[in-house]
Amino acid sequence: MNEGSLEAFDPEALASAMAPLLGLAQPPESRAQTIVHLRIAAEHAEKLSSVPLDDQEEPAPVFTP
Amino acid sequence: MTAALLDGSAHAIAEAVRSGSTSAREIAEAALGRVKTRNGALGAFTDVTATRALAKADAIDAARARGETLGPLAGVPFAVKNLFDVEGLRTRAGSKINRDLPPARADATIIARLEAAGAVLIGALNMGEYAYDFTGENSHDGPSRNPHDLERMTGGSSGGSAAAVAGGLVPIALGSDTNGSIRVPSSLCGVLGLKPTYGRLSRVGAFPFVASFDHVGPLARSAGDLALAYDAMLGRDGADPAQAERPATPVSATLHEGAKELRIAKLGGYFANSAGPDALAALDALARALNAKRTVELAHADAARSAAYLITMIEGAALHLERLRARRQDFDPDVGDRLIAGAMLPGAWAARAQKFRRLFRDEALALFRDVDILLAPATPCRAPKLGQKTFVLAGKEMLVRPNLGLFTQPISFIGLPVVAAPAWTAGEKLPIGVQIIAAPWREDLALRVVSALEREGVVRAPVAKYA
Questions:
Q1: How far is it, in rounded angstroms, from Cα B24 to Cα B16?
Q2: CB distance B352–A41 less than 8 Å?
Q3: Residue B394: pLDDT above 90?
Q4: Which of A15, B195, B223, B231 pairs as cysteine with B177 (C-beta 3.0–4.6 A)?
Q5: How far apart are CA B320 and CA B327, in angstroms?
């Protein structure tokens, strides 16, 4: 996530777009809490994005056939 | 007389049963009696397997009467977080939904291994729903309660496991730890909890949460009992794809080798910045006792916590998506809303987090070239009150449920072996734990340190005197 995008992040819009795609009902109280958790997740994603990662970095889990 | 053995160690119980000074049946009856009298206050047990326990105890006594050699856990009562399969029980995993599943047809692998060593299963234990919890509260079964103060949290998600051990109902319990679910309740309830290296113990028969981070392990009141249980659970199980091809390396034989030759350092930076004064005082007390004067840093611990947080949300949501669609109203609201949010997150975040996980592993391994043991707080504070939703850490108000594990999460993120060990300060009736962290596959070193601290009286885990 680029600098400043946390302010631009719109969890309401994300929840509105994703709930029908996922087939999830959104009663008002649940939706409000979901939005709280989306905002927290975005803060964590921003922290994670501050660590530079090379294209060649391999993800931790390695599948063994 | 026999009931008093339940306040002591599993070692002492097994020795008493082997010597014939008490019988396995007397011990099992005493443990079942304690569950009957104490569980109403503690909310630790959700299922009691009395018939099975007495049959197992009788089989042990019969084996002794025939002159057979009894196992190292002969007659030791134990109980398991209710996400472990117990033959004949529905594996509720703290949920309402799973109660509709058929009863388990076999025991989880590590239950079978403990019983093969002579241990006696007494029942299954309360936990946070689907293990997505650091509080020990459960909207379906009620909260498990901290035996040192019944109005406070046990911590979660293995809250019933810690309450059962701290309350003197059983000397050993099994828990699971994805982000801290053994270590957080161990800290808040004043018991010892071992989260082994990722891939060490079989998870077969444990209801999953986040496959990338799921661990299983024991809680007990001494390093010796942790080692006893851990050694009995070692061994390959081809049915767990995450289990590593490593030799089983028992730890009991080296437990008393001391900590003097080990290079021990405190973790600073992230771990010091958000910890409350009680957590830092406990950390300093252990560091002083170990003559650990160095402070080192895992530079990306904060990002590691964030990466673990995101992978947990996304993998956990994927596991439960169908249940969220079909039975949203049957979830604990505090769990269901987090899972729904997890289902909505970009896949790129999870992929980036898994890439970063390897980098952070390398950062920790570099540190372990220079130190053998790292010390860090287990929780930022002592047990919050039941029902408490927020607390203030480093000047910022935060939710309790996701943030009690902010110090455990970066460590399980890369699968390091850890013992959470309780420290006490003068006049304080609530404990608080410290993480004793070793390099991958060196559970033996972490347990040696805890054992040395016990001998100095710095770490102890007495049965709570609430009764």
A1: 9
A2: no
A3: no
A4: B195
A5: 10
B46-51 average pLDDT score: 98
User: At A1, is the pLDDT very low, low, confident or very high (cuts 50, 70, 90)?
Assistant: very low
* Contact state of A44 with B342 under an 8 Å Cβ cutoff: no
Contact at CB, B345 and A38, closer than 8 angstroms:
yes
Across the interface, of B303, B306, B325, the residue whose CB is closest to A23 is: B325
Q: How far is A57 from chain B (nearest CA, A)?
A: 6
Residue A29 within any structural domain of the chain: yes
Q: Please name each of the domains of chain B with its CATH number.
A: 2-455 (3.90.1300.10)
Contact A53 B356 (CB under 8 A): yes
The Cα–Cα gap between B279 and A42 comes to 28
The complex's ipTM?
0.94
Strand order in the sheet with B120-125: B45-48, B120-125, B77-81, B172-177, B215-220, B192-195, B418-423, B432-438, B373-377, B264-267, B294-296
Minimal CA separation from B240 to chain A, in Å: 13
Instruction: Determine the pLDDT at residue B316.
Output: 98
On whether any CB of chain B is under 8 Å from the CB of A47, the answer is yes
Of the residues B157, B161, B186, B222, which is catalytic?
A: B157
Kindly identify which residue of chain B lies nearest to residue A55, measuring between CA atoms.
B355
Residue A37 lies in a domain: yes
- B352 contacts in A (CB within 8 Å)? 48-49, 53
Q: Is B96 a catalytic residue?
A: no
The predicted structure's pLDDT at residue A63:
72
How many residues appear in chain A? Answer: 65
Alpha-carbon gap: B231 to the closest alpha carbon of chain A (Å): 27
Domain range for A32 is: 5-49
Rounded Cα–Cα distance for residues B192 and A58 (Å): 35
User: Is residue A22 situated within a structural domain?
Assistant: yes
Could you read off the pLDDT of B94-153 as tens digits, one per residue? 999 999 999 999 999 999 999 999 999 999 999 999 999 999 999 999 999 999 999 999
pLDDT at A24 over 80: yes
Residue with tokens 């070239």: B369
B139-194 pLDDT, tens digit per residue, is 999 999 999 999 999 999 999 999 999 999 999 999 999 999 999 999 999 999 99
3-state secondary structure of B318: helix
Judged against a pLDDT cut of 80, whether residue A5 lies above it is answered with no
d(CA B48, CA B28): 12
Note whether residue A38 is domain-resident.
yes
- Chain B residues whose CB is inside 8 A of the A61 CB are 212, 354
- What's the structural domain count of chain A? 1
